[in-house]
Design brief:
Length: 319
Protein backbone atom coordinates (compact mmCIF):
# COMPACT_ATOMS: atom_id res chain seq x y z
CA UNK A 1 0.00 0.00 0.00
CA UNK A 2 1.54 3.37 -1.02
CA UNK A 3 1.87 6.15 1.56
CA UNK A 4 -0.92 8.75 1.78
CA UNK A 5 -0.73 11.38 -0.95
CA UNK A 6 -2.10 14.90 -0.77
CA UNK A 7 -3.87 14.85 -4.14
CA UNK A 8 -5.42 18.29 -3.64
CA UNK A 9 -2.01 19.92 -3.24
CA UNK A 10 -0.80 18.11 -6.36
CA UNK A 11 -3.84 19.48 -8.20
CA UNK A 12 -3.11 23.07 -7.15
CA UNK A 13 0.57 22.67 -8.06
CA UNK A 14 -0.48 21.72 -11.59
CA UNK A 15 -2.93 24.61 -11.92
CA UNK A 16 -2.56 27.47 -9.44
CA UNK A 17 -5.74 29.23 -8.35
CA UNK A 18 -5.94 32.97 -7.74
CA UNK A 19 -8.64 34.44 -5.54
CA UNK A 20 -10.37 37.82 -5.90
CA UNK A 21 -12.81 39.43 -3.49
CA UNK A 22 -14.93 41.80 -5.57
CA UNK A 23 -17.87 42.90 -3.46
CA UNK A 24 -19.27 43.12 0.05
CA UNK A 25 -23.06 43.41 0.10
CA UNK A 26 -25.03 45.08 2.89
CA UNK A 27 -28.69 44.68 1.94
CA UNK A 28 -31.99 44.99 3.74
CA UNK A 29 -34.98 43.07 2.38
CA UNK A 30 -36.32 43.19 -0.22
CA UNK A 31 -33.20 42.67 -2.33
CA UNK A 32 -32.20 40.70 -5.43
CA UNK A 33 -28.93 39.94 -7.24
CA UNK A 34 -28.96 38.94 -10.90
CA UNK A 35 -25.41 37.73 -11.43
CA UNK A 36 -24.35 37.22 -15.07
CA UNK A 37 -22.14 34.37 -16.20
CA UNK A 38 -18.43 34.93 -15.68
CA UNK A 39 -15.56 34.38 -18.07
CA UNK A 40 -14.36 30.81 -18.70
CA UNK A 41 -11.93 29.72 -16.01
CA UNK A 42 -13.64 31.70 -13.26
CA UNK A 43 -15.57 30.16 -10.37
CA UNK A 44 -17.85 32.57 -8.56
CA UNK A 45 -18.23 32.36 -4.80
CA UNK A 46 -20.51 33.89 -2.17
CA UNK A 47 -19.88 33.77 1.58
CA UNK A 48 -22.85 34.59 3.82
CA UNK A 49 -21.53 36.44 6.84
CA UNK A 50 -24.98 37.28 8.15
CA UNK A 51 -28.63 36.84 7.22
CA UNK A 52 -29.98 34.41 4.66
CA UNK A 53 -30.52 34.16 0.89
CA UNK A 54 -32.46 32.12 -1.63
CA UNK A 55 -30.61 30.72 -4.64
CA UNK A 56 -32.86 30.16 -7.64
CA UNK A 57 -32.48 26.84 -9.45
CA UNK A 58 -31.82 27.61 -13.15
CA UNK A 59 -33.45 24.28 -14.04
CA UNK A 60 -36.72 25.30 -12.42
CA UNK A 61 -36.41 23.32 -9.21
CA UNK A 62 -37.18 24.71 -5.75
CA UNK A 63 -34.92 27.55 -4.49
CA UNK A 64 -32.08 26.63 -2.16
CA UNK A 65 -31.93 28.48 1.15
CA UNK A 66 -28.51 29.69 2.26
CA UNK A 67 -27.83 30.76 5.83
CA UNK A 68 -25.09 32.61 7.68
CA UNK A 69 -21.88 30.59 7.53
CA UNK A 70 -22.71 28.98 4.17
CA UNK A 71 -20.29 29.18 1.25
CA UNK A 72 -21.60 28.87 -2.31
CA UNK A 73 -19.35 27.99 -5.25
CA UNK A 74 -20.53 27.98 -8.87
CA UNK A 75 -17.81 26.04 -10.73
CA UNK A 76 -19.43 26.25 -14.17
CA UNK A 77 -19.43 30.07 -14.27
CA UNK A 78 -23.21 30.10 -14.77
CA UNK A 79 -25.53 33.07 -14.40
CA UNK A 80 -27.57 32.89 -11.20
CA UNK A 81 -30.09 34.76 -9.06
CA UNK A 82 -30.00 35.36 -5.31
CA UNK A 83 -32.81 37.12 -3.41
CA UNK A 84 -34.30 37.51 0.05
CA UNK A 85 -37.29 35.24 -0.64
CA UNK A 86 -40.02 37.77 0.12
CA UNK A 87 -41.26 38.03 -3.47
CA UNK A 88 -41.37 41.83 -3.18
CA UNK A 89 -39.80 44.20 -5.64
CA UNK A 90 -36.17 44.66 -4.70
CA UNK A 91 -34.81 47.97 -3.48
CA UNK A 92 -32.23 49.37 -5.88
CA UNK A 93 -28.65 48.80 -4.80
CA UNK A 94 -25.93 51.41 -5.08
CA UNK A 95 -22.22 50.69 -5.26
CA UNK A 96 -19.31 52.69 -3.92
CA UNK A 97 -15.63 52.00 -4.31
CA UNK A 98 -13.72 51.08 -1.22
CA UNK A 99 -9.95 50.97 -1.02
CA UNK A 100 -9.79 47.28 -1.89
CA UNK A 101 -13.24 46.22 -3.16
CA UNK A 102 -16.71 47.53 -3.98
CA UNK A 103 -19.32 48.02 -1.25
CA UNK A 104 -22.92 47.48 -2.37
CA UNK A 105 -25.85 48.75 -0.28
CA UNK A 106 -29.58 49.31 -0.61
CA UNK A 107 -32.31 51.12 1.31
CA UNK A 108 -34.22 47.99 2.35
CA UNK A 109 -35.42 48.01 5.94
CA UNK A 110 -36.18 44.29 6.29
CA UNK A 111 -33.96 41.44 7.45
CA UNK A 112 -30.31 42.19 6.76
CA UNK A 113 -27.82 40.40 4.52
CA UNK A 114 -24.05 40.66 4.85
CA UNK A 115 -22.28 38.76 2.06
CA UNK A 116 -18.88 38.56 0.39
CA UNK A 117 -18.81 37.95 -3.37
CA UNK A 118 -15.74 37.06 -5.39
CA UNK A 119 -14.10 34.79 -7.93
CA UNK A 120 -11.55 32.02 -8.09
CA UNK A 121 -9.53 32.32 -11.30
CA UNK A 122 -7.90 29.35 -13.05
CA UNK A 123 -5.74 29.75 -16.14
CA UNK A 124 -7.25 28.02 -19.20
CA UNK A 125 -7.00 25.22 -20.12
CA UNK A 126 -6.13 24.12 -16.57
CA UNK A 127 -9.66 25.02 -15.51
CA UNK A 128 -11.05 22.08 -17.52
CA UNK A 129 -9.83 19.46 -15.07
CA UNK A 130 -11.34 21.10 -12.01
CA UNK A 131 -14.51 22.56 -13.46
CA UNK A 132 -15.46 19.42 -15.34
CA UNK A 133 -15.15 17.34 -12.17
CA UNK A 134 -17.10 19.64 -9.86
CA UNK A 135 -20.90 19.98 -9.62
CA UNK A 136 -22.66 23.03 -11.13
CA UNK A 137 -23.14 24.40 -7.63
CA UNK A 138 -21.40 23.50 -4.41
CA UNK A 139 -22.68 24.58 -1.00
CA UNK A 140 -20.52 24.07 2.06
CA UNK A 141 -21.98 24.73 5.47
CA UNK A 142 -19.04 25.73 7.63
CA UNK A 143 -21.20 25.88 10.76
CA UNK A 144 -21.99 22.15 10.47
CA UNK A 145 -20.15 20.59 13.41
CA UNK A 146 -21.39 17.05 12.87
CA UNK A 147 -19.54 14.12 14.35
CA UNK A 148 -18.13 13.30 10.91
CA UNK A 149 -16.38 16.67 10.74
CA UNK A 150 -15.49 17.15 14.39
CA UNK A 151 -12.37 14.99 14.16
CA UNK A 152 -10.97 16.85 11.15
CA UNK A 153 -11.35 20.41 12.38
CA UNK A 154 -11.76 21.64 8.80
CA UNK A 155 -15.11 23.31 9.53
CA UNK A 156 -13.49 25.22 12.38
CA UNK A 157 -10.64 26.27 10.09
CA UNK A 158 -13.10 27.52 7.49
CA UNK A 159 -15.00 29.48 10.13
CA UNK A 160 -11.76 31.08 11.34
CA UNK A 161 -10.74 31.98 7.79
CA UNK A 162 -14.15 33.52 7.05
CA UNK A 163 -13.93 35.50 10.30
CA UNK A 164 -10.57 36.87 9.20
CA UNK A 165 -12.05 37.83 5.80
CA UNK A 166 -14.91 39.57 7.62
CA UNK A 167 -12.50 41.59 9.76
CA UNK A 168 -10.19 42.47 6.89
CA UNK A 169 -13.05 43.56 4.64
CA UNK A 170 -14.57 45.66 7.43
CA UNK A 171 -11.31 47.56 7.92
CA UNK A 172 -10.59 48.07 4.19
CA UNK A 173 -7.01 48.93 5.13
CA UNK A 174 -3.82 49.45 3.16
CA UNK A 175 -2.71 46.13 1.68
CA UNK A 176 -6.16 44.68 2.21
CA UNK A 177 -6.65 43.67 -1.42
CA UNK A 178 -3.58 41.45 -1.35
CA UNK A 179 -4.63 39.98 1.98
CA UNK A 180 -8.22 39.32 0.90
CA UNK A 181 -7.17 37.76 -2.40
CA UNK A 182 -4.73 35.47 -0.59
CA UNK A 183 -7.43 34.52 1.90
CA UNK A 184 -9.80 33.83 -1.00
CA UNK A 185 -7.33 31.38 -2.53
CA UNK A 186 -6.99 29.62 0.82
CA UNK A 187 -10.78 29.56 1.11
CA UNK A 188 -11.00 27.64 -2.16
CA UNK A 189 -8.71 24.86 -0.93
CA UNK A 190 -10.41 24.63 2.46
CA UNK A 191 -13.88 24.61 0.92
CA UNK A 192 -12.98 21.69 -1.34
CA UNK A 193 -11.40 19.86 1.59
CA UNK A 194 -14.48 20.36 3.73
CA UNK A 195 -16.81 19.26 0.92
CA UNK A 196 -14.82 16.04 0.42
CA UNK A 197 -15.11 15.21 4.14
CA UNK A 198 -18.89 15.33 4.37
CA UNK A 199 -20.99 12.20 4.50
CA UNK A 200 -22.65 13.16 1.22
CA UNK A 201 -19.86 14.61 -0.91
CA UNK A 202 -21.19 15.95 -4.23
CA UNK A 203 -20.86 14.00 -7.45
CA UNK A 204 -17.47 14.36 -9.08
CA UNK A 205 -13.90 14.59 -7.88
CA UNK A 206 -14.94 15.41 -4.30
CA UNK A 207 -17.13 12.33 -4.10
CA UNK A 208 -14.22 10.27 -5.36
CA UNK A 209 -11.86 11.85 -2.84
CA UNK A 210 -14.33 11.20 -0.05
CA UNK A 211 -14.65 7.54 -0.97
CA UNK A 212 -12.22 5.80 1.43
CA UNK A 213 -11.85 2.66 -0.68
CA UNK A 214 -10.94 4.64 -3.79
CA UNK A 215 -8.41 6.91 -2.07
CA UNK A 216 -5.35 4.78 -2.99
CA UNK A 217 -6.22 4.92 -6.69
CA UNK A 218 -6.82 8.65 -6.64
CA UNK A 219 -3.55 9.20 -4.78
CA UNK A 220 -1.34 7.34 -7.25
CA UNK A 221 -3.03 8.86 -10.32
CA UNK A 222 -2.14 12.34 -9.07
CA UNK A 223 1.24 11.40 -7.60
CA UNK A 224 2.58 9.21 -10.42
CA UNK A 225 0.64 10.09 -13.58
CA UNK A 226 3.50 9.00 -15.83
CA UNK A 227 3.09 5.35 -14.86
CA UNK A 228 0.94 3.23 -17.21
CA UNK A 229 -1.66 2.44 -14.58
CA UNK A 230 -3.94 -0.39 -15.55
CA UNK A 231 -7.35 -1.13 -14.14
CA UNK A 232 -6.14 -4.36 -12.46
CA UNK A 233 -3.28 -2.48 -10.75
CA UNK A 234 -5.60 0.22 -9.45
CA UNK A 235 -8.15 -2.37 -8.34
CA UNK A 236 -5.46 -4.24 -6.41
CA UNK A 237 -4.40 -1.03 -4.63
CA UNK A 238 -8.02 -0.51 -3.59
CA UNK A 239 -8.50 -4.15 -2.62
CA UNK A 240 -11.46 -4.64 -4.94
CA UNK A 241 -12.27 -6.26 -8.26
CA UNK A 242 -11.80 -4.49 -11.58
CA UNK A 243 -15.55 -4.41 -12.14
CA UNK A 244 -16.19 -2.92 -8.70
CA UNK A 245 -13.50 -0.27 -9.17
CA UNK A 246 -14.87 0.70 -12.59
CA UNK A 247 -18.39 0.90 -11.19
CA UNK A 248 -17.34 3.11 -8.26
CA UNK A 249 -15.42 5.47 -10.54
CA UNK A 250 -18.38 5.79 -12.87
CA UNK A 251 -20.88 6.30 -10.04
CA UNK A 252 -18.75 8.83 -8.14
CA UNK A 253 -16.96 10.61 -10.97
CA UNK A 254 -19.02 9.98 -14.05
CA UNK A 255 -15.84 8.96 -15.89
CA UNK A 256 -13.38 6.11 -15.93
CA UNK A 257 -10.03 5.98 -14.17
CA UNK A 258 -8.24 6.10 -17.55
CA UNK A 259 -10.15 9.27 -18.50
CA UNK A 260 -9.14 10.90 -15.22
CA UNK A 261 -5.52 9.86 -15.79
CA UNK A 262 -5.53 11.44 -19.26
CA UNK A 263 -6.98 14.67 -17.87
CA UNK A 264 -4.30 14.77 -15.17
CA UNK A 265 -1.54 14.09 -17.71
CA UNK A 266 -2.70 16.81 -20.10
CA UNK A 267 -3.10 19.36 -17.30
CA UNK A 268 0.39 18.57 -16.06
CA UNK A 269 1.79 18.73 -19.61
CA UNK A 270 0.20 22.14 -20.22
CA UNK A 271 1.82 23.38 -17.01
CA UNK A 272 5.24 21.94 -17.86
CA UNK A 273 5.22 23.34 -21.40
CA UNK A 274 5.30 26.86 -19.98
CA UNK A 275 8.93 26.33 -18.97
CA UNK A 276 11.17 27.53 -21.86
CA UNK A 277 13.80 24.90 -21.07
CA UNK A 278 11.38 21.95 -21.26
CA UNK A 279 11.44 20.19 -24.61
CA UNK A 280 8.28 18.60 -25.96
CA UNK A 281 9.96 15.19 -25.80
CA UNK A 282 10.89 15.67 -22.14
CA UNK A 283 7.36 16.77 -21.27
CA UNK A 284 5.93 13.79 -23.16
CA UNK A 285 8.10 11.39 -21.16
CA UNK A 286 7.29 13.16 -17.88
CA UNK A 287 3.57 12.55 -18.38
CA UNK A 288 3.85 8.94 -19.48
CA UNK A 289 4.27 8.98 -23.27
CA UNK A 290 7.22 7.09 -24.72
CA UNK A 291 6.50 8.49 -28.18
CA UNK A 292 6.59 12.24 -28.75
CA UNK A 293 4.28 11.81 -31.76
CA UNK A 294 1.71 9.96 -29.63
CA UNK A 295 1.88 12.72 -27.02
CA UNK A 296 1.37 15.42 -29.65
CA UNK A 297 -1.70 13.64 -31.00
CA UNK A 298 -3.15 13.18 -27.52
CA UNK A 299 -2.44 16.79 -26.54
CA UNK A 300 -4.05 18.16 -29.73
CA UNK A 301 -7.11 15.96 -29.25
CA UNK A 302 -7.48 17.01 -25.62
CA UNK A 303 -6.53 20.69 -25.75
CA UNK A 304 -7.50 21.62 -29.29
CA UNK A 305 -4.01 22.94 -30.08
CA UNK A 306 -0.60 21.35 -30.56
CA UNK A 307 2.01 21.50 -27.77
CA UNK A 308 3.95 24.07 -29.82
CA UNK A 309 0.87 26.25 -30.28
CA UNK A 310 0.05 26.00 -26.58
CA UNK A 311 3.62 26.91 -25.62
CA UNK A 312 3.55 30.02 -27.88
CA UNK A 313 0.20 31.05 -26.44
CA UNK A 314 1.43 30.57 -22.88
CA UNK A 315 4.54 32.69 -23.52
CA UNK A 316 2.39 35.38 -25.08
CA UNK A 317 0.10 35.50 -22.06
CA UNK A 318 -2.69 33.50 -23.64
CA UNK A 319 -2.34 30.41 -21.41
Amino acid sequence: MPPPIDWLSHLFEMMPVRGHLDLRCFYGAPWRIDQPATDPGEIQYHVLLGGSAMLEDPDGGPPLRLNAGDILLLPHSAAHVLHDGSGKRAKRATNRDGLNFVISENAGSGSRLDMLCGRFVLTPPHDRLLQSYLPPRLVVRATDHSAALASTGTATQVEALVALMRTESAQDSLGGRAMLNALSAALFALTLRLASETDQAPHGLLALAGHPRLAPALAVLFHEPAKPWSLPELAKLCNMSRATLARHFQESLGRSASELLTDIRMTLAAHELKAPSASTGAVAEAVGYQSEAAFQRAFKAHMGVTPAQWRRGARGGGG
